[in-house]
Structures
1.
Amino acid sequence: MNVKFSNRMEKLKTSEIREILKVTQNPEVISFAGGLPAPELFPVHEIKKISSLVLDEMGPESLQYDLTEGYVPLRKQISERMNRVYKTELSEKNILIVCGSQQGLDFSGKVFIDKGDVILCESPTYLGAINAFKAYEPEFIEVPTDDFGMIPEELEKILNQRHDVKMIYVIPDFQNPTGKTWSFERRKKFMEVIEKYKIPVIEDNPYGELRFSGEILPSLKSLDNLGLVVHLGTFSKTFCPGLRVGWICASEHILEKYILIKQGADLHTSSFSQRIISKMLENYDFEERLSKLKELYKKRRDLMIFEMKKKFPKNLKYTNPDGGLFTWVELPEGFDGRKFLEECLKNNVAIVPGGSFFPNGGHENTFRLNYSNMSEEKIIEGINRLSKVLNEFEY
Ligand code: PMP
């Protein structure tokens, strides 16, 4: 049928990861492709009990329409926790509850981007953000990024040349896809540049609390003197993604715009999910839960890195992250990550080719591995299979 779609639909294509995830539904496939948390640590029994409690204590309210901004006690709990963990100075008035931080990304595009505006991002950056922003038809400029984060001198060079930059998108903690974390020095320098040019920053932070070693670093939001930083948080990786509860924190004059967009998009985030999370935070030991997650993910990271060191060819590099869910592999020029994936799938193991994480293409000699979702046995067997493919693959 010949229907006419909007121009923006021409720019959108399905996420490569979603397509790979379909193939990995096959139980024979060992998948290091998705970014899925370990399901064995989902708080199923706790949520069962808490759901009854929520229905007993506030049944009709938890099933009714809610405030667009979100459930006030949960917004208070989040702002207090952010202040403690990330050294911010926020109140519930700075928090809007959204359906996962992915919704925060989409809304950021709606709030800041007109067709043709420039978005600056790390190189590489999160594929889901590239796809969310693409709907608003921006131009992406990738800012050179090294092991310590976005390079402030390079950022400043671009900001000097381009006066149509509307927003900067960054993931300073255990980045998706590289697993890298910005140093404190870099955070400070970055904020100095931002305050000079006064560009809004989207600080996306789904993994910050999953730190295996060292101290949690102050967030960009805590270094934000002018109210330019919009910080995105989520319970997807610390509780479970299925409840779809995340948050946006920003200065009130920016948050107002997001609230308007939220009203038009879906009125509010699930009343029931928000109350379940709020009661979980109230009645259960969140720190203990985080410790269990970090212990398991550290074990899996250690094992994956150990196996890679033992079995992978010596001409490649990979990151050894201090937290989060991913390691990033770089091969010599000429390696084709997409063809490599085809070979991997023939051997029942999956990765994500790194090229998809660069909005302007290139860098096909890279791939991303996830270590949170597979058991220890599968990590060993999966790295065996990958090593076999790598050793036979021509590049
Ligand atoms: N940002 C980043 C960097 C992510 O890795 C993810 C999840 N993979 C999200 C945002 C979206 O997470 P959610 O919507 O579940 O909060």
2.
Amino acid sequence: MIEHLLLGQTLQFTGDALADWQAATRHDSAGAVLIRDGRISDVGPAETLRRTYPQAPVTDYGDALICAGFVDAHMHYPQTTMIASWGKRLIDWLNTYTFPEEAKFSDPAYADMIAGRTLDLALAHGTTTLTSFCTIHPASVDAWFQAAAARGMAVVGGKTCMDRNAPDDLRDTAQTAYDDSKGLLERWHGQGRATYAITPRFSPTSTPDQMSALGALWAEHPDCLMQTHLSEQVDEIAWVRDLYPDARDYLDTYEAHGLLGARGLYGHAIHLEPREIDRLADVGAAVIHCPTSNTFIGSGLFDMMGLASAGLRIGLATDTGGGSSFSMLRVMAATYEIGQLRGTPLHPAQLMWLATEGSAQALHVGGQIGHLGTGAMADLCVLDLASTPAIAQRRASADDIWEALFPTLMMGDDRAIRDVWVAGRRVAAG
Ligand code: GUN
Ligand code: ZN
């Protein structure tokens, strides 16, 4: 039995903080977390846990904040090296920057290098789980899951499928997309901490035949996730309308081919029709908010509170490299800013809940990851709430934990990550 007792401030969620953050939040200014064999086995006051587990080695983080590791519910690891590429909107951005970079993943050694680099950058930013699109190359999926296994991380990934409107060297077919995805999910889904997501990139780059093939594959493996993009930009929606003249709306291009379900993850989901919102809510699907990407690529303002009150699951994500940061702190700041523009600013507790519990629930692993509570995996992030002079001087006058935390959410970066634990192993020290 391997035990470790962490002391610090602790932040726990006991319910849906988006609905009622006061009822759902527990903060202890002198708290403790007991890790046993890779899982969290107790959380409580430091004094009590020290007395109960006198044999456990102790790491004392002082007044740093121990919380669940961040869960990034939508990103593209192959876009790590092209993050922050200037001046294009979605379709031109894909053609100019994204596709040439993704073509490089025909080289498995390159895929291995970028997968490892991405996960190390994520850990340095306090993110312990990522959900990634890979490229059309099956070896890019092997690279992703192998790099995560080497670090003990729970990740989601899948082969990106495209059989039209992409360069020759980035196209598969309906049949090879089915066969390769099937082979990969049989190899990886449920292996260690790996979860497979069937991955049609988005409706414009798949023919109806490919969509149907992937819908059939999902029906054969309903415990897998399915990830894609939905209604990100207005021009994209018009293009989808031309490509699928019989579809009632963008979501219908997925729905008609068996690609709408509870385990579906729909990235962006900004410009939704009422029917689309109703259907997503009916089936219990998740939409993933990618705020740093939505401002960077100029996509629009996600309606967080409207969609939450319609009953949708909502996850939070960087969308690297459409998103311009690897940091879920920056994603929380952008979520707050977009909430302000919509007249519905989120409370810091709601932002933290979304970046941990909300994303984990979107991935159907609520309570197992993104959760500071007994039985969850010990994937933890320790936040220094005074990591820069600018943050420290603001925090000095804070009256409560929320005022103490908010400057770090708004102004923090990887310097705020004091430590990270993955499956009960310490992986980074500030
Ligand atoms: N839509 C289709 N592919 C992509 C992508 O790689 N990034 C973003 N942001 N949107 C997409
Ligand atoms: Zn994306």
